[in-house]
């Protein structure tokens, strides 16, 4: 996968793109990442990339010319541009399903805004307008980092264990079940006996029940349209009945 990022602050990506999982993916040629400072493409003699909005109003807007020309330069080097993602609070909300969708692409380009917003004509360049959540950040860089991290870890070969990503919270539609490692007894806090039993069928049932319980208690909205097996539906009914008895 090729990932391009258009940003006024390219050095913000120096650490995140060269450490941990993403850094390993770059070193192993699983992804290729480029960061472009679109200020380098402005034709303004003072290197301005923003201006006041027509009609008045607070703040400054990013001008179209630097971003149009920066994206054209990226596309000249990598003609199969794929998805072009505008980081924007007005976009649809990023989630695990979107990450899974992005992970299928060969090329992603993230446009990171700053200041008050974008000239509306910039939107004509993009395939997706995406928000990290219902809050405002100073710029799109942190949002792009989160989306890239969530996406790259789903690319085959990036995670050491091929079962890690499918078992994560949200990938199954449920929050992840509780997990434990050694020691079995830490200061009186013990690992559930079922996990030490060696009975993998019972362990799988326990994990499913715990995932359902945790999701019901913490994120019941996730269960609304989730398709469950007959066993899972019965487990969930029992969990609800136990909660009603409290």
Automatic annotation (TrEMBL):
Q: Which family does it belong to?
A: Belongs to the RNA methyltransferase TrmD family.
Keyword check for Membrane, yes or no. Answer: no
**A GO biological-process term:** methylation
- Stretches assigned to the tRNA methyltransferase TRMD/TRM10-type domain: 1-224
GO molecular function term, any single one: tRNA (guanine(37)-N1)-methyltransferase activity
Question: Which Pfam families does the entry link to?
Answer: tRNA_m1G_MT
Source organism per UniProt? Lactiplantibacillus nangangensis
Keyword S-adenosyl-L-methionine among record annotations: yes
Q: What is its main location?
A: cytoplasm
The compartments listed are:
Cytoplasm
Q: Which UniProt keywords apply?
A: Cytoplasm, Methyltransferase, S-adenosyl-L-methionine, Transferase, tRNA processing
What quaternary arrangement does the UniProt entry report?
Homodimer.
NCBIfam families assigned: PRK00026.1, trmD
Q: Which gene encodes it?
A: trmD
Record EC number: 2.1.1.228
Query: Per UniProt, where does S-adenosyl-L-methionine bind?
Result: 113, 132-137
Q: What does this protein do?
A: Specifically methylates guanosine-37 in various tRNAs.
Catalytic activities: guanosine(37) in tRNA + S-adenosyl-L-methionine = N(1)-methylguanosine(37) in tRNA + S-adenosyl-L-homocysteine + H(+)
- Its name, as the record gives it, is tRNA (guanine-N(1)-)-methyltransferase
Q: Which InterPro entries match?
A: Alpha/beta_knot_MTases, tRNA_m1G_MeTrfase_C_sf, tRNA_m1G_MeTrfase_TrmD, tRNA_m1G_MTases_N, tRNA_MeTrfase_TRMD/TRM10
């Amino acid at each position: 996968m090729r990932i391009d990022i258009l940003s006024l602050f390219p050095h913000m990506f120096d650490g995140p793109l060269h450490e941990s999982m993403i850094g390993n993916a770059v070193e192993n040629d699983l992804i290729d990442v480029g960061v472009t400072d679109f200020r380098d493409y402005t034709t303004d003699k003072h290197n301005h990339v923003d201006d006041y909005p027509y009609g008045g109003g607070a703040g400054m807007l990013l001008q179209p010319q630097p971003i149009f020309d920066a994206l054209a330069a990226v596309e000249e080097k990598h003609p199969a541009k794929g998805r072009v993602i505008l980081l924007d609070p007005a976009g649809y909300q990023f989630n695990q399903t979107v990450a899974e969708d992005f992970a299928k692409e060969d090329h992603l380009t993230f446009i990171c805004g700053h200041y008050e917003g974008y000239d509306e004509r910039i939107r004509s360049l993009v395939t997706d307008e995406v928000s990290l959540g219902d809050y405002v950040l100073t710029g799109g860089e942190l949002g792009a980092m989160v989306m890239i991290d969530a996406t790259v870890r789903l690319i085959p070969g990036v995670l050491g264990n091929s079962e890690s990503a499918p078992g994560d919270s949200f990938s199954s539609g449920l929050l992840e079940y509780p997990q434990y490692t050694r020691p079995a007894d830490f200061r009186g806090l013990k690992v559930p006996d079922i996990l030490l039993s060696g009975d993998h069928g019972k362990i799988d049932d326990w994990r499913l029940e715990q995932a359902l319980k945790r999701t019901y208690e913490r994120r019941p909205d996730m269960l609304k349209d989730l398709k469950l097996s007959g066993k899972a539906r019965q487990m969930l009914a029992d969990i609800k009945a136990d909660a009603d008895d409290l």
